[in-house]
Amino acid sequence: MEELEAKIDSLNSSVSNATFVDSVKAAIEAVNQVEVSIAEERIIAKVFPLIQARFDQIFADNATFCVTVDDDLMCALTRENLEVIFQLAEIVQEFMNYIHDHSPMQLSCIESVLKYLPLFIQMSADHWKNSADEYKTVFNEELAKLFEVLKHLYASYLYLLERSIQVGENGEEINLLVDALTVLCEMPKVFSVIDASSILSSWKCFTTVTSNYSQLIENDLDIRVPIQLLTDDICEMLKSLNPRDAQTFPRQLKILTYLVKVLCKITYNFKPQLSKFASEMLEFFVKFLCYLSDVHANKAFLKETTQRIDAEVVKLLEGLLGTLLVTESGAFKELLKGFSKITKLGESSCGYVALLAKILQIISNMSSDWSDVLPQIIEDIFEFLPNCCSYLCMDGPNGEMYQHLIVQAGLAVLLQDSTFECSQVLLKHILQGNGFAAILALEVYCLIASNISPEECLSLLINLLYAIQEMQCGFFTNRPEISYLKCLVQRLYSILPDTLKEEVVKLFRPEQHIQVWRFLEFANFPNKSRKLLEPIVEITADSIHSFTDQITENMIVNVGESIDLLSTIEDLALINSSKASIIVGFLSKFWSCRIDNGICSNNILKYMFWKISRITASCIIEGRLKPSLVFPKFQVMLKNQSYSIPVLFIINCLIHSECLADPELLRETTGLITLALRSHNTVRESELEMLATFNYSHKKVLNVLLDSLNPGVAQEIFGRIEAFKTQPKHQISGQMFVHKCLEWGVDCDDYPPAKKIRVEGKSCHNPVPSIKKQLNHATRGLTYENPIRSQSNDLKYAEDDSSATEAIQRIKGEVKCLLKIGRTEKLTAKNYADLRMLMSQLSSLM
């Protein structure tokens, strides 16, 4: 042994390759003559560093030789060097065979193997990766032979870790295992350039070893490293999916699915330590969902392909996320409060929004309280939403995510927001946010309002109206947030039953609160209160009477705004006012005026036309205005682009009515449409919607119309009109929330009436705080000195006036729902106390 050790010690860089190989081979063969622990200490620990040094020297020489691959001498030296590497790899393989024959082994007996064998493989892989293509071609045969033995060597290494080791419960052994696992999880990226299948085998080995020793290493292994590396591997695999390659795609999808399963397995194994790597898990979900949105946006992927990815991969991750949020919610709650600020998510905004949508879906069905985190989740969605517009406007899964966001955000707020703070976040983004975010906030707010009690919805509306009443907002304000605010209060008002609409009318009488009704408008005004509109008609008529030769700008604005407000009344004829005819007379005089190209550029004319366009359409439909009086003026106005939108609006109103049954009116309307479309080379969405309606009712007429247009415009219309679909304005806000034991939109005999659902912790008598502050930030020049008046002193809400039979039916539905929930959830002590109280109250009633 002393002689062998001396021989090993004499080996250095000056020794020839042949001598070095013979000496190493003799040293490895001598291992059989001693105990494994002695062999490790006196032979392997000395030989393996020498092999590493020889690998390094040879690969450095070859990197120099490969510059002159045309030189026969250099080629011969390179081949000789590669042969030496091959022989050394075979010698190491022989030692691995010896270890397997004497397994299981203590880690301390194979410390050098754990340290150096991955290095041998990494150096070979780096040599291949850094070599020129010409070098790889010339020495292809030698490299292929070397890589074949390296594959066997790596397989032996994995087998050793999986089945041939014994780990002692001492610090040294645990540290050796942790170091080996840290190296192992980095090997897929290293060795995959030589053997793509090593990705699967490496992670399989890692999962097996960590499963066997998870309790032993849970406090020492930095699980963040494998999570980050798996994130890179999974995202790279998802990015490289090629659905056009029928041969490789199934295998790619199989590898992707397997890697996701590995991630799930590792996470479950180390779930008690989740707080240490929760941030990395969230980053994984963000990046994965971001790449998934790219896959959904890629037209190369057929619908069946993306559905397969969703079924095989996404379902696994949704299950993992749900389990983590339910069982380890504490690890995520604090993290989510500031996650968007501590991570760089700018390039992964779509993934982050998708993740938050899934989190909302999960926490909506959880019994634990997330009200302290929910406002930040909602806030983060709106912060990153503007970067996702291009994705969310697409057809398919990305576009569906927008609808999904509305439903899940509304559901989460209804079930989890006990402080009602989220409504303030929504209102802030309706008033101040990006346009795309504002529309989403508007839809969510309206969905929530649709599913709370009418009294609570009234409470929200009245607080908004008190704030609007004190806004200092000019007539010519065209800021988008004002339009969103108008839409919000109009939707809230339309949700209310007529009895509560009348309460709003009593609080805000139209003639005393004009500004409020400029936002609310009269489209949903209760029929019983129609008499209250007569003063508005009289005020408008008086404004028209005040027109003199000395017309001022204020007079024009008063008339224009008053007529615009009155035009929101569904049927002006229902108002029993003798002065209503004055308004119609004013319209007749207006359209009797001479309008030529010169006057069309007048801004006052433009303003007035915009304001009277809606009531003009109503009067034509009702027969109060003759088309022959109005249409010639339209023909002149359409020569100016400023008038095309209001003219087309009037035409659209006519198309939706029955008045186009008159052939002459249909002919004149068609002529106006042709003139409007000829005035520009693009087609707006509003025009497509109008033409789609026209196509449905007068297809032959439309075909003739298209033939007369510019071929490019006609082709665009023809290509898009059949596929154009109009979305109902309240499609989302009309959905009604039901208990979690039922599904959305499923018919059921015991369907809980949505409007009877109460949002826990909120009183309909308490005004929503901070609304004035929100409006103040959204509008310039607003001043608020007094706090918002509480409507609790103004309104006395009656108790529910439904019959006993209806109330009992609702109770039966709730009991059935409770029984379903009771099969899967354990009732708490408070639940039992509440049930006893209800039983006592019912007994007293009987």
From TrEMBL:
<protein>
    <submittedName>
        <fullName>Uncharacterized protein</fullName>
    </submittedName>
</protein>
<dbReference type="InterPro" id="IPR027902">
    <property type="entry name" value="DUF4487"/>
</dbReference>
